[in-house]
Structure formats: C-alpha cells, structure tokens
Automatic annotation (TrEMBL):
GO terms for cellular component: apical plasma membrane. Disulfide-linked heterodimer composed of the catalytic light subunit SLC7A9 and the heavy subunit SLC3A1. The heterodimer is the minimal functional unit. Assembles in non-covalently linked heterotetramers (dimers of heterodimers) and higher order oligomers; the oligomerization is mediated by SLC3A1 likely to prevent degradation in the endoplasmic reticulum and facilitate heteromer trafficking to the plasma membrane. Disulfide-linked heterodimer composed of the catalytic light subunit SLC7A13 and the heavy subunit SLC3A1. It is a single-pass type II membrane protein. Keywords: Amino-acid transport, Cell membrane, Disulfide bond, Glycoprotein, Membrane, Phosphoprotein, Signal-anchor, Transmembrane, Transmembrane helix, Transport. The chain crosses the membrane at residues 86-108. It is found in: Apical cell membrane. This is Amino acid transporter heavy chain SLC3A1. InterPro entries: GH (IPR017853), GH13_cat_dom (IPR006047), Glyco_hydro_b (IPR013780), O16G_dom_2 (IPR045857). Its main location: membrane. One of its GO terms (biological process) is carbohydrate metabolic process. Residues 123-510 form the Glycosyl hydrolase family 13 catalytic domain.
Length: 687
C-alpha cells in the first residue's frame, strides 16, 4: 500500500481510498495502518464523516449491501483487480478480433447470387398455360392455380408473356392499355392475387414490357391521328402518297411495307410489326416519360422484373432513307421481308442504349430493399452480329439489362453435332463482357419447339446441357416435358405472322400445356374447346404421367435443376471445354477448393461413340456416372479412355479431386466472378 498524504488523499495504488474507512482485515489484526491517517479530512473522492461511517460498516452483515467505499477497497486488491483487468483486455481483444473477422469476411466474401441467377426463368404463355374459366384460353387465375408446379420444378422466376388489355391482333403484344388486364385473362384483382400468391411462395414475377409500340386502339394513337397537340408526335408519322403509301423501302418483321396510310391524319405511320402495332416515337421526351411512368406503375405493384420486348426497334433514323438491299439487284417491289434489307436505319440506332439505361436506373430505385432486386432482360435478335447483343449488358460503369437473351442455342438443330453445340456455346462465352452472367434459351413463343426442330431423341441431352452450363437457363413452358409443335392447318391459323406466311406461323409452339391424360390434357376441364389444338401425344407426354416416371424428361429436369441450385460448382464454378467432335461435346464444372467436380459428356451427334479422355490428366481414371439421360447407365463406372454414349445421350459424371483443370487450360475456361471454397468451414471466398 503506498501512501500519499497530500491533500488528505490516501491512494491505494491507482485507486482513491476513503480516508474514513477501516477495512475488515485491518480490524481483525488491530492495525489501523493508514486508515486513520486521513480521518476527519476532506476527500475529493468520497465525502464521509469518518466515525459514523466506521460504526455503520462494522455492523454490516455479509451480503447486506456494499457501499461504494467498501467496493472500492476490495476491488483494488490484486486478486480482484488482476482478473478484472484480464477480462477487460480480453473483451477488448475479442471485440477487435470479431470486428477484424467481420471486415475480412465482408471483404473476402463473393457477392451473393441474386434470384434471377439462381433459378431458371420459366416462360408462361398465358393463353396456353391453364384455363380456369373454360373459355378455351388460358388466364391469370389458371396460372395461380398451378403455382405448386413451379415449386415442384424448383423454379423461382416466372416470366409471363403479355396480359395487358389488347385487341389480341398479336396476342397481347399489341397493347391497348398498359395499366389494365385484358378481360380474357382476368382482372386487376386476379393479377394482384397472382402476384401475392407468387410472393408468398417465394416466386418472382417477370412481366413482358413492350416499349416499342402500342395497339392502334391505344388512346395515344387515337389522339395522335387526330393531331391532338399533346399527342401529335407520339408516333412516327410522315407524309406519303395515299395510293402508294411507301415513303421508303422499310419492311415490317411480319412482311410488306412498315408504313400504313392513316385516313384520319392523312399521313403514314410506321409499324415495324403489324399495322395494328404502330411504333412509338421514343425520341419524344413525353413518350419516354409515359414509358417511365408505366415502369413505375408496375414496379409499385410489386412486379420483380421486365422482359423488354423488341428493344432493337425502339428508335429509327429520322432521315427515313431507304435501307440497303441485301441483293442490290432485286427489283425493289420484291423487297418485302426483313431478310431483304440491312436494317441500318430501323434497328440498333444510336441512343437506344441510353434509353434502356434510363429505364434501368428507374428500376434500380425499386431495387434497394433486400430481396427486392428488379430484373431486366432484353429481347433482341441480332443473329451473327453478336457484338450488338452484348451491348445490352451495359458497361462496367453503367448498368443496362442483367442479360440480353441468348438465342444462339435455338440454332442447335441446324447441325446436331458436338462441335456445333460447342461453337454456339462459345459464341456467347467468348463475346460476353468479362464478369457478366450468361444465359441460354432453347425455345420461346416465337420459335419452333426444340423437341420438334432437333428431334425428340435430343430433348434430354439439350435440357441436360441447358441446366449445367454456367448462367441462367430459360425454359419455355412444356420444354421440361419434351412437348412438341402441333400441326396447324391453314384454316386453323391464329397467328398474324402465319396469316402472312403459313410457314412463319408461331401457332405450332403455342399449343395448350399438357397437364394430364384427361379432358383437354387438364388445360381446362369445363368445355371441349381450346384456342389451339392439343398435341395428340398429350396422353403420354404430360406432367402427371412424367412425374410418376423416374426416367422421364420431367424427372430428369427436376433432378438436374435441384442439383444446379444445390451444387456450388454449377452456380459459381469454372466452366471449361474438355472435348468436342462430330458427336460429343464435353465440358466440366469445377470450383477451387471444392472436392466434387462434374464432367459432362453429351452426344449431340448421330452415332454411338466411345470418347477417349485419357489425355485429360486432371481427370481421375475411373469415372462414375451420376446421371445419364438413359437411366440404365446411372451409376456405371467408365475408364476415362472409354466413355460410351449413344446419340442423344448425356452423361453427368461426378468425381472427387482437388486437382483443378482450369489453371492448366486458361484459354478453355470461363468464370463470371471468381470464388473459392473452403471445405473445412463450408464457406466461399474471393480468390
Ligand atoms: C417480340 C415478341 C413477339 C411479338 C413481337 C412484337 O418479338 O416476342 O411475339 O410478335 O415482339 O411485339
Ligand atoms: Mg420503333
């Protein structure tokens, strides 16, 4: 005990002691050392009358309550003070360590995948999915009744083709009122119920959004043709000759001139699609404002994203010059289809991406809350001009769509072979900007069903590839069953494109969804009508039958989609080409630090072959099939020098090794965002 008598303070090391206090130990020994030395003096720390306090203390019973002075006395003893200090510094150290670990984890954690990356996008064509009221046409309630089906498939993202109020000249892609639901599909209440139910089940709803055109029944068009000052420039108008209304050689996607004379206004208006789908003048700021208001309207309602329709057509050159002919010698009067011209002035005009970026920025306002990310996918067929498509990904600094649809796999049937499949996949992978997220489409409401164009024997192989490539797959309703095109006779044609040119009809791929073997395949059960005929194979190709069959297209789809979402190498791993020849396309998925890797060997050819992968040192010698499109091969073990496949057979081989393929073959491998896996604690980190 060090004494410092100055100013009446008695210091017990660093503590200040009450001068009027005698401690119990001192009492017991009778030594009053120090305790009395300050009695009667003022203490700056504790003011007490020494004697009465002394009396009180001696009467204290153990645990009867400890005045501050006593506490101070005891607490300053080494046996209390040291542990206290140790605990204090331990707490400080632990807090700092925790902070450091948290910061490190945040810094090292790769970004979480968003909902549109985790699940495939499933496209519902609402006319054909499920008809709840039995009028022969599918509707919103019909979709609500089938939400469990998406859960069965492990699908989270559902894109529904248009259900706005529409005269249905292009089955909803001709919108009369963007803020209303067509009575054929239901009411706004039905929509709200559908959205609420979807959200309750953890599903996301992606709406079709059509910024390029409206219906000619739209209020804006009626006001524009009467030259209402506010609306006069809402569409693309030009003077033309009433009897020969062709101000230039531009043609509609559905054929013939893209100009139609309007008697009310006495001018021609532009329509890149049907004459009942006049193109909006998106150079007019008022029109852009209208579009943005619509985006707000639906986002406020809670929709989770938009599929932006026909975006490359949004702007046209204002000079209206003729487009160059593909065959300059063709007589101009024979220039009637989109394939006859280079679309230098009607598609992909300067300013287009600024428009989409503006839309994207509006969507981002609604994306800030957790799990409320609003997704945008753009539709643009740019065919061999892949650079044009890639522009829709935006730049590292300015966001645009999350991805533009990748339509290249639609060309798979042109030449079913391993090298062709690899070529089509590579077209996307080599051209996609670094760090972006790929996606794959094998069918939609505008293109023949893949089962029909490629052939039924390739259906499982194509689905296997779709679900194991990196990025987001898109599944058009029925592809998970291997549904095929229907035959539509000339008199049955519904599609306007088919009325212009029967071979261009899109009806064959729009037939009613095949739910079961009952009446109308379960599409509806109240009447015997369906807006398009059913495919005659519905008694065997339907959800109910396939659900009960482990070897079915549906069961394989469910299995692979489940695996795709649970296995990190599929979500976050490297994608590497291993091999391709006239028959087989082989690639692998692996993740650094993750023991399980997957080798895919898919035969898109016409011959049964044995593939020799013995030169691929990174693969183990024995390879066990986890899943074959042909269930009899599940579980078989092959030597890597002899991997047999039949035409249309795909093998998913799971193998265990920490040896990675990508470091030795960097030119053959891609990853959107690099991540590594730490097995011991089951976490992913940036590497
Ligand atoms: C898109 C749609 C197609 C429609 C066209 C006009 O290409 O997918 O079905 O006819 O736009 O809106
Ligand atoms: Mg346009």
């Amino acid at each position: 005990m060090s004494l410092n008598g100055d100013g009446g303070r008695v210091e017990l090391q660093e503590c200040i002691r009450n001068p009027g206090f005698r401690d119990a130990a001192a009492d017991a020994t009778g030594s009053g050392s120090g305790s009395g030395s300050g009695s009667g003096r003022d203490s700056a720390a504790v003011k007490l009358d020494a004697e009465p306090a002394y009396e009180t203390y001696t009467q204290l019973k153990p645990y009867a309550g400890m005045p501050k002075e006593v506490l101070l006395l005891y607490s300053s003893r080494a046996r209390y003070r040291v542990p206290r200090e140790v605990l204090f510094w331990l707490t400080v150290c632990c807090t700092l360590a925790l902070l450091a670990v948290t910061v490190t984890i945040i810094a090292l954690s790769p970004r979480c995948l968003s909902w549109w990356q985790v699940s495939p996008v499933y496209q519902v064509y609402p006319r054909s999915f499920h008809d709840s009221d039995g009028d022969g046409v599918g509707d919103l309630r019909g979709i609500t009744e089938k939400l469990d089906y998406f859960q069965l498939l492990n699908i989270k993202s559902v894109w529904i083709s248009p259900f706005y109020r529409s005269p249905m000249k292009d089955f909803g892609y001709d919108v009369e009122d963007f803020r209303d639901i067509d009575p054929l599909f239901g009411t706004m209440k039905d929509f709200e119920e559908l959205l609420t139910e979807m959200h309750n089940k953890g599903l996301k709803l992606i709406m079709d959004f059509i910024p390029n055109h409206t219906s000619d029944n739209h209020r804006w068009f009626n006001l524009s043709r009467t030259r209402d000052p506010q609306y006069a420039d809402y569409y693309v108008w030009t003077d033309c000759n009433e009897t020969h209304p062709k101000p230039n050689n531009w043609v509609s996607i559905f054929g013939n001139s893209s100009w139609t004379y309007d008697e009310v206004r006495g001018q021609c208006y532009l329509h890149q699609f049907l004459k009942e789908q006049p193109d909006l003048n998106l150079r007019n700021p008022r029109v852009r404002k209208e579009i943005i208001d619509l985006i707000h309207f639906w986002l406020e309602k809670g929709v989770d994203g938009f599929r932006m329709d026909a975006v490359k057509h949004m702007l046209e050159a204002t000079h209206l010059r003729d487009e160059p002919q593909v065959d300059p010698d063709k007589p101009p009067e024979l220039v009637t289809t989109e394939w006859d011209l280079y679309h230098d002035y009607t598609t992909s005009q300067v300013g287009l991406h600024d428009l989409l970026r503006e839309f994207r920025a509006e969507m981002d306002i609604y994306s800030r809350e957790p799990d409320k990310y609003r997704f945008m996918v753009t539709e643009s067929y740019d065919y061999h001009e892949v650079d044009k498509t890639m522009m829709y990904y935006g730049t590292p600094l300015i966001k645009e769509s999350d991805f533009p649809f990748n339509f290249y796999l639609l060309d798979l049937p042109h030449n079913t072979s391993g090298t062709w499949a690899k070529h089509l996949v590579d077209l996307w992978m080599t051209n996609m900007p670094r760090g972006k997220w790929p996606n794959w489409v094998v069918g939609n409401h505008d293109r023949s069903r893949i089962a029909s164009s490629a052939g039924q024997i390739y259906v499982k192989a194509i689905n296997m590839m779709l679900l194991t490539l990196p990025g987001t797959p898109t599944t058009y309703y029925g592809e998970e069953l291997g549904m095929e095109n229907i035959n539509v006779t000339e008199s049955q044609i519904q599609d306007p494109a088919g009325k212009y040119n029967a071979s261009a009809s899109r009806d064959p791929e729009r037939s009613p969804m095949q739910w079961n073997s009952g009446m109308n395949a379960g599409f509806n059960n109240k009447t015997n009508i369906t807006w398009l005929p059913l495919h005659p194979d519905y008694e065997t190709v339907n959800v109910e039958v396939q659900e009960g069959d482990e070897g079915s297209v549906l069961s394989q789809y469910r299995f692979l989609n489940g695996l795709r979402q649970s296995e990190l190498p599929f979500q976050r791993g490297w994608f590497c080409y291993v091999f391709a020849d006239a028959n087989v396309f082989s690639y692998l998925r692996e993740l650094d630090g993750h023991k399980q890797a997957y080798l895919m060997v898919i035969n898109f050819g016409k011959e049964s072959v044995t593939t020799d992968l013995s030169s691929v040192q990174e693969l183990p010698n024995q390879l066990k099939v986890l899943k074959s499109t042909n269930p009899v091969n599940n579980g078989k073990v092959f030597q890597k020098s002899q991997i047999p496949t039949e035409p249309g057979e795909g093998l998913m081989i799971q193998y265990s090794t920490y040896t990675r393929f990508h470091p030795n073959h960097p030119a053959e491998c891609y990853v959107s965002e690099k991540a590594c896996y730490l097995d011991t604690i089951d976490i992913l980190y940036k590497c």
